[in-house]
Write a structure and sequence with these properties.
Helices cover 63% and strands 3% of the residues. The chain is mainly alpha-helical.
Length: 418
Amino acid sequence: MTFLSKQRTRDSYFDKISTKSKSLNNSTRIVLDQFDIFCNSEYSHDSENVIQEFLALDGTQREESACDVYQSWINWSFKKGISPKTLKVYFSLLKSYLHYRGIKISEKDIKANVTLPKLIKEEKYPLSMDQIHDILKIASYSKKSLYLALLSSGMRIGEAVQIRKKDTSFSQGRLTVKIPARITKTKTGRTVYISKEATNAITPKRNKIKDDGLLWGTNSNYLTAVQADVKAFSKYVDSSPSKMNSKVLPKIDKQIDSDTYKKQNSEEEKISVAVDKPRHESKPKPSEYKSESATLVLSIVVGLFGIMGVGHLYIGKIRRGIIIMVIGFSLWTVVFIPFLFLGIGDEIEQSITADMEFLQYSGGLPQKDTSAVLIGFVIAIMAVSIGYLVLYIWQIFDSRKLCKRYNQHLEKEGKPLW
């Protein structure tokens, strides 16, 4: 044996295919484990002994024996309940492994001597809008966001459950998803866009999770996540008024026909009803959401005591709130402090008149200017009072307008305005 030769074993085979997808590696392990069970059951030897027995045979006898074993394994697996479609995939994986181990059988011999069960192909059909509504009405809120994303983007379920927050961004009010090449079937990255309804449905969760958090997936193992979602979808299909093929979800991006996609935009408002008003639960608001009622209460009630701008502070407009607070308190002081120290009504006039008479008697103020000063003082107080009232009313409406603008931007873009 040359130093270049390397013994081929099961472990070395898995080293060889380690660069392939995780699903292929997992499926191969399942196939080889089942082949072990089959060999022990049929020949009372493990698969390794069976392989060595194959290698001990000459060319023609090896081919015939291998075909016989293949056929026996296929029949055994089919009786165990493995579907024809799955069995075809498993057979391909088993052939690749045995070929690697030195059992090389031509495709012509396999075709002539090995028979696979016939595949039963049911006719596939696109989901209608009524069927979509039936599913959305009974699905949980998190599943609705997933189904709407699949419908509007064309993502595969295996791709959607692996999308993380860092793979998404906002563009014109819609969520843009950049699907990494490593999670796609073709190993080619692409960018897709989801509808406004799907964006609104997933935005609350997106705002809470970290950049590396899963957006639609429920498990870091995507195979587990896919199986869970397929099971949930099957449950919704069985519970829906219109019975459908429960295997539609894994191929949902393939089965939606062009007419359904064309209708999608015109039907967005109808679909959003099912999303915005889910049964037994309401649409959650982002944690950064600001209450318009709270803004109005703070602006009106607290402002009555001379402390304006609190509504602006609540919605995050700190600088504007402080400026309004300083100006408002200054005006409040000018208007009300004189009343506190000098009294109300006639007492103010008497105090001012007494001051004027004193100035006149001492020669500090001419007689004709007494009434003018008094009138000027009253006009000044009235002007400041009007200014205070105008500022008070303006800050109420301004804080409410900014609060509404802030919430609209948060809902549309998924992030605070300031």
